[in-house]
Each structure stands twice: as C-alpha cells, then as structure tokens.
Amino acid sequence: MATVLDFSKPHVLRNDAEYEAAIAEIERLVDEDVDVGTEGCDRLEFLSVLVEHYEDERYPMGAVTPQQAVTFMLEQKGLSRSDLDDVMGGKSRVSEFLSGRRELSKSQVEGLRRLLGIPADILLGMEG
Question: What mean pLDDT value characterizes the chain?
C-alpha cells in the first residue's frame, strides 16, 4: 500500500514515487466519497492540483487541433469519415475541414459535439 504523503510542509511532486502516492490517495479519497467543505475534500482538491501540475510538466500534450480531435474520436467510436457527411453537409465539406481548408460552422460544431462528444471550445480551436 502506498504511503500517505506528508504535506505539513507543502511542496510540488518531485518524482514518480510521490506522484504514485498522490494518485493512490486521490483514489482513496474518491472511494470515501468525501463531503464538500471537509478536510478530506480540501486534500482531494489539493492533491488533484499537484498531480495535474506534475503531469503537465512531465507529459505535456500541447494543443489539439479540431481536426485531430475529430479524427481521434472517430477512431475511438469506430466510425469513418463518411459518418460525418450528414453532420458536415457532404463529403467535400468533410474533406475541406479535415485538410484544414475550412473552418466549422455553428451547426457543424453542434452536430460534431452531439455525434462525437467533443467540447465546442476544442472544435472551435479555442482550447489550450
């Protein structure tokens, strides 16, 4: 079992062992279903911030383009480009978007969000 981290002197996660301990404690706190406003909830939030920072520093993802997001979600859902034809307004619109020659319209963003579950800010290229 992982050791509980001592944050009497708070610090960032410095290595994989501390990261793994933080993950284990987050899982324990989530399983306990801690109440909002409690010390456990505060610790859960604090550890989550530390883990997010550690992951961002060690494993930067960079910005995802709308085209990358759509392609990824098509693969994840076992769909093909032709499944986008109705949402996008035809094969040529799908091709123009995926090649980066055309931006998405509001109705296309809404359709892709419904079909693929991609947040609108990513589809609009506003995330990051």
Answer: 87
pLDDT tens string 73-91: 999 999 999 999 999 999 9
Give helix 39-58 / helix 16-32 axis angle, nearest 10°: 140
Beta-carbon count within 10 A of 9 CB: 5
The CATH 1.10.260.40 portion of the chain extends over 66-123
Within 10 A of 7 (CB to CB), how many other CB atoms are there?
Answer: 12
Contacts of 17 (CB under 8 A, 6+ apart): none
Yes or no: say if 35 and 53 are a contact pair by the CB < 8 Å rule. Answer: no
Give me the mean pLDDT over the 100-121 stretch.
Answer: 93
According to DSSP, residue 10 is labeled -
CATH class label, 66-123: mainly alpha
